[in-house]
Amino acid sequence: MPTLDDILEHIGEFDLFQKRTFFILCLLSAAFPPIYVGVVFLGFIPEHRCLSPGVAELSSECGWSLEEELNHTVPEWGNHDKSLTSQCWRYNVDWNMTGLSCTSPLENFTSHTSQSRVPLMHCEDGWVYDSSGTSIVTEFNLVCEDSWKLDLFQSCVNAGFFVGSISIGYIADRFGRKLCLLITILINSISGILVAFAPSYTWMVIFRLIQGLVSKGGWLTGYILIAEFVGLKYRRTVGIVYQAAFSVGLLVFAAVAYVIPHWRWLQLAVTLPNFFFLLYYWCLPESPRWLIAQKKNDKAMKVINRIAKGNGKKLPSSFQSLIPQEEDGEKHNPSFLDLVRTPQIRKHTFILMYTWFTSSVLYQGLIMHMGIAGGNIYLDFFYSALVEFPAALILILTVDQIGRRYPWAVANVVAGAACLATALIPEDLYWLKATAACLGRMGITMCYEIICLVNPELYPTFLRNLGVLVCSSMCDVGGIITPFIVYRLAEIWHELPLVVFAVVGLIDGGLVLLLPETKGKTLPETIEDAENMHRQGKSKDKTIYLHVVTTEVAHN
Fold first, then answer.
1. What is the dihedral of CA 161, 166, 171, 172, to 10 degrees?
2. 3-state class of 89 per DSSP?
């Protein structure tokens, strides 16, 4: 009696229909980076200083260059150890006063020659930003005492990811992958447009939170959907390439941000294409595995026939009807308790939650730590995204030959060791330090891609989407606290965040070895299947079979 994987062997495991479906879902993956890391460009912080009334006029009269103007009128300008003073304070003087000296204008306000004696005040009249474009920072003045609002903007996105991952996962398992995907696309598109037209910071954060609630859940639902369409031997490839499509989106996002340096237009440019994904209503069928798990066999057969027709294959007559086994007649509905009810699934859940947390902290943390050093934001972002493609290639060449666990453990160890090396290598060995940082980014990218591949393989069909999204919610917890790890610890020692990343990554490298190897195994259909995955072999009676009505049976 054949399983769905057996049927796919006859009608095509990854033929024309699945390839077309996979391509259009990869477009969804490529559209996710502007939400996940959009703050890099939407919240770009340019060099800034207080706006001092009268300075521009005095500079024009004296014929100062920009550097001379800054040296004369900005406190502590050029002193990197006190850069906060030059950005958030200004001299408490009247620059419109007549008779000011062009060589030492501050001498008119103090009897001392030292500028440090001149009283200071907060930037009551706003700021001047050295940027030809705009960001939410420059428009809403999210600097100095309001700099925490930029952290809140990104934290709200990750908080939305956290809540949405759990709720969207339940909806996808309860009501279907396709319906869930379409709803998340619609809400994400509308809220993205509202972000671009937000009249205030508060409304912008609210609309961004709504985007976070649906966008990540939709992205992961797309991954689950394509994984359930293809045959066993192609799950690895589609999982890695789906992640690589995200990396392509990173490159495209960097290019679009370079061309459109104004945040509202940039937000519109990356949001409007999402409305085209609503065409998935006509392009994508429901997951046949989900339909079978829900005992909707007639609808499952329609999807299977559609796949066969799309692949130019004819479904064998012996596979024309599906009959559920009597002992599996009760339809399974997912429950959060199912994730911790049984010992093996409970172990899988806790380890996967930690490794999702680790992947997020190291992935986002390395990007943020790179930004502390400054440089060309577009080139830095572009080059760091390029590193992800060798990671995908290494996985394609290894996970089917070696398996999932050992490359996963090695990738964690490489990421952790590279973070530690980057922290200890002195600044004057720039290229060695940069190479170590790139190795760390490559290692954690491999971890991200492997967990997206393995997580669905460890849960039964009716629980799969919920399991993936609940575990991946820890990724969002990591995203919420990562800015505090990077920026607060860097104030103590610039490289301290990297040491923390190293410890977290090395621990994860050991934990993933406690998970069962999933290479070459069929997707578990029941709780019992998932509980027995740690065993070397799997007996035939532990697999849910799709009963078929053959002509001989019908004759009898």
1. 80
2. strand
What is the model's pTM? 0.81
b/e 250-271 (16+ beta carbons within 10 angstroms → b): bbbbbeebbebbebbebbbbbb
Confirm or reject CATH 2.60.40.1190 for domain 1-40+140-327, answering yes or no: no
Q: What is the H or E stretch that residue 408 is in?
A: helix 405-424
Give the largest CA-CA distance in the chain: 112
Output the six-digit token pair for 67.
Answer: 């550097």
Chain segment 331-352, per-residue pLDDT in tens = 567 778 888 888 888 999 999 9
Q: Give, for 351, the enclosing helix (H) or strand (E).
A: helix 343-372
Residue type, 324: P
Helix or strand holding residue 253 (H, E): helix 235-259
In 10 A of CB 344, how many CB atoms?
A: 17
Partners of 129 in beta bridges:
48
pLDDT tens for residues 426-457?
Answer: 878 878 887 888 899 899 999 988 887 788 88
CB count within 10 Å of CB 110 equals 15
Q: Which helix (H) or strand (E) holds 238?
A: helix 235-259
- The full 3-state SS of 130-183, as one line of letters, equals CCCCECHHHHHCCCHHHCHHHHHHHHHHHHHHHHHHHHHHHHHHHHCHHHHHHH
Question: Between 1.20.1250.20, 2.40.50.140, 2.40.420.20, 1.10.10.10, what CATH number should domain 338-532 receive?
Answer: 1.20.1250.20
What the block records as the tokens of 498 is 């990297």
| CA angle centred on 211, ends 205 and 213, rounded to 5° | 105
Contacts of 279 (CB under 8 A, 6+ apart): none
Q: Nearest-CA neighbor of 399 among 219, 521, 246, 533? A: 521
The pLDDT tens digits of the residues spanning 201-255 come to 999 999 999 999 999 889 888 888 888 888 877 877 888 888 889 989 999 999 9
| C-alpha radius of gyration, the chain, whole number | 28
Helices (H) and strands (E) counted in the chain, each on its own, are: 25, 6
Structure tokens belonging to residue 405: 């666990």
Instruction: For residue 55, give Cα distances in angstroms to 51, 66, 86, 129.
Output: 8, 11, 15, 15
In the chain, ranges of CATH 1.20.1250.20 domains: 1-40+140-327, 338-532
Q: Which amino acid is at 536?
A: Q
Query: Which residues lie below 8 Å from residue 371, measured CB to CB, with a gap of 6+?
Result: 40, 377, 380
